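Attaching the record inline, Q. Sequence:
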Amino acid sequence: MSLFKKQVKVAESFSEDADAIIAQADTLAFTKSLPDGLNRLILSSPPYNIGKAYERQVPIEDYLEQMQPLLVELVRVLASNGSLCWQVGNHVDDGEIFPLDVFFYHRFKKLGLQLRNRIVWHFDHGLHATHRFSGRYETLLWFTKTDDYIFHLDPIRVPSKYPGKTHFKGDKKGKPSGNPLGKNPSDYWSFMQEEWASGLWEFPNVKANHPEKMAHPCQFPIELVERCVLSMTNPGDWVFDPYAGAGSTIVGALKNERRGIGAERVAEYCALTRKRIELLSAGELRTRPVGKPVHQPSGREKVSQIPLSWSLNPVT
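Structure, as predicted:
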């Protein structure tokens, strides 16, 4: 039964009977409490160490050493045929750029993971730099634990650029030359207009006018989550986000009949995640439809978000 049509059972600590687990906890301590090999997919965007409200900026070497114990635990709780998707940008220190994917690659590689794709996530809007070119992309590192991993291409295919193209010679002359379900979306995800029709991985980052926008400064678009969930897991699998934030990973998992786990220190963000699950269960959660053209701002938009002062009814 679709989770849109039933109550979602939410727990605060690990429970095999839960549909979702929202732990207000230190992520390392919580991850240590999870069973070995539990998660088919670990998907997260860790703090970038750039001084956001929820982090304290430290030298890059200290930041990476602080992260290392968690990385070890993430590999432990990843299923043997599972995937780890680590979405990062750049650490900036005194105007110098440190590409975090480079640093994390070597650490995950030493822990035995294998890199399957380095996906470039391009977007058209963001902060404007004055002493260098403005950053308009981030990267998602897709690792697997072994060579025997889950990957479903058909659910995430995009329309072919020339869907009616046929072979012009040989035994297959006149027959379709491409897969009738569409083509592989590639390792370049672009945030542009008419995204689905263009055949690229195109969905906007979550800014003020995005229907999913809430009171969180760095929020995953659910479309990004869904592409990973549909291609790298099966229904009923556990999907874990060690830095859950406003819960997009959990929502994207539940929306597609998987189970979600998230660890988050901030109580307000845990409450927001519960509210989003409550709305999802009632069929009332606003999400951005795949294929909708990316909004072009006029400069007159007002921020619309779910306020932290909402009354949050428990979800059982």
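The two ends are 17 Å apart (CA to CA). The chain has a mean pLDDT of 80.

More tomorrow.
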